[in-house]
Amino acid sequence: VTRALAQLMPGEPEVTGLLALMLLQHSRRRARLDAEAVPLTLEEQDRSLWDAAAIAEAGELLNGAGRRAEPGPYRLQAAIAAVHATAESAAATDWQTIVALYDRLLTVTPSPIVELNRAVAVGMASGPQVGLSALERVAASGALDGYYLLAAARADLLRRLGEYGKAADFYRVALAGAPTQPERDFFARRLDEVGG
C-alpha cells in the first residue's frame, strides 16, 4: 500500500520517508523472533538474516528525499531506522546520531514516546546512568504512568549497570503490563537472566 502511495505521490518527501521506514522495518522481519517466537532485541538479532536489498532501497529513497524540504516525522523515523540497519553490529551503532535524530523528531512531533525512545538512545550513547536520568525526567511528567515499556527501559538500563535486583523489579512491572504473550515471554526471560 505504501509503495502504491509513493507511486501516486512521487514528489512527496514524507511519503517517500514512510516507504523507506516500512522497508527498513520489514527488512528485519526474519530476525525478529527466536525459535520459540520470543522477540529478539537488535543486539540479539542475526544481521545476516536482514534483507540487504530492502535496506539499500530505503537508503536510496532517503537520499533522494533528503534533497527536498525539511524532514518530517516519517523521514526522521526512517533515518533512525537506517542508522540501526546500516550498523555492522549492535556495538557499532552510531548512538550519538540517533540521539540527534530524536532531538529533531521531538521538535517536529513532541510526544512522551519519542522522549522515552530518546532517553534509551541517550543511555546507549552516554551510558546507562545518564540514560536513567533521562528516563526519570520522562517519568516525572506523568504522561507514561503505568506504561510497561517505560518499566522495560528502566529495567534494561539497570541490567546494563549490573543492578540486577532493581532491574528485576522493573521487569516484573513490564511483564505484568505487557499486552501480548510474546512480550510476556520476552520479559519473563529477561527476569530469569537477572535472577528474578
Give a written overview of the molecule:
This protein has 196 residues and is mainly alpha-helical. Helix content is 68%, strand content 0%. The chain contains ten helices and no strands. It has helices at residues 2-8, 13-27, 52-65, 73-86, 95-108, 112-126, 128-140, 148-161, 164-177, 181-193. α9 (164-177) packs antiparallel against α10 (181-193). The longest helix has 15 residues, at 13-27. The protein is globular and about 50 Å long. The model has no long low-confidence stretch (mean pLDDT 94).
- Secondary structure: helix percent: 55-70%
CA-atom Rg in angstroms = 18 Å
Major beta-sheet overview: none
Q: How do the helices and strands follow one another from N- to C-terminus?
A: HHHHHHHHHH
Shape: globular
Q: Which regions are unreliable across 5 or more consecutive residues at pLDDT < 50?
A: none
| End-to-end CA span | 44 Å
Give the beta-strand count.
0
Give a short synopsis of this structure.
The chain is built from ten helices and no strands. The chain has 196 residues and is an all-alpha fold.
SSE arrangement:
Blueprint: H1 2-8, H2 13-27, H3 52-65, H4 73-86, H5 95-108, H6 112-126, H7 128-140, H8 148-161, H9 164-177, H10 181-193
Helix pairs in contact: 1-2, 2-3, 2-4, 3-4, 4-5, 5-6, 6-7, 7-8, 8-9, 9-10
Identify the notable features of this structure and list them briefly:
68% helix, mainly alpha, 10 helices, 196 residues
